[in-house]
Specification:
The chain has five helices and six strands; from the N terminus they run ααααββαββββ. The protein has helices spanning 12-27, 35-38, 45-71, 75-83, 102-114; strands at 91-94, 100-101, 119-130, 139-151, 158-172, 175-191. A six-stranded mixed β-sheet has the order 2-1-6-5-4-3.
């Protein structure tokens, strides 16, 4: 009988990989702002790096969720998530928008930009995190792809924006936060509703 991955015995290296993957999957929801999770690596530098990278990637997801909340008029919830995503003094800029400082100013800008759409959906794609090797990094960089859909009215035209977010990140007492964000547009296209 041929052994499949389900019947092959676990090797120590494979077990460590599976354990790390399970820890990341199980902990992703808790990574929203918990510095306790980031220190749960138990001294294993590779585990700590995986946890740091997962928390940093979660920041991009938080941003997309918050932006769509604000677009739906849930400003307080969106702002709370922006505050858990950015440092208070983070410069934030998208395309040709002005550079605004901090989550409060950015929430106001996003609300005004999205309030006339009937629906929005901000999808985060390919994510990359770069942290210094060794030790306990305090800063890093991240990038993520954006595919954002904005519907003018139900069944009406759709504005599709493609771009890449470039972030500087910093470890704070409350976990990782974005300390600077720049969105570079790749494409902006007006489409008719299918």
């Amino acid at each position: 009988m041929e052994q499949t991955s389900a019947t092959k015995p676990h090797t120590p290296g494979r077990r460590k990989f599976i354990t790390a993957g399970a820890a990341l999957a199980a902990g992703s929801a808790a990574l929203v702002g918990s510095s306790a999770v980031a220190s749960a690596g138990g001294g294993d530098p590779s585990m700590q790096q995986l946890l740091d990278e997962a928390q940093i990637k979660q920041l991009a997801i938080n941003y997309a969720l918050a932006t769509d909340m604000i677009g739906r008029g849930k400003r307080a919830e969106g702002l709370a998530l922006y505050r858990a995503t950015f440092t208070p003094d983070a410069p934030i800029q998208a395309g040709s928008s002005p550079t605004l400082i901090g989550p409060e100013a950015w929430e106001e800008y996003v609300y005004n930009a999205l309030k006339n759409f009937s629906a929005t959906q901000h999808l985060i794609g390919t994510q990359n995190v770069t942290l210094p090797q060794g030790g306990n990094p305090k800063t890093g960089q991240a990038s993520s792809y954006l595919h954002a859909t904005h519907e003018y009215s139900p069944g009406g035209n759709i504005l599709v924006v493609l771009g890449t977010y470039y972030d500087d990140v910093v470890r704070t007492k409350n976990g990782w936060r974005i300390s600077k964000r720049t969105l570079v547009f790749v494409s902006v296209e007006l489409r008719t509703h299918p």
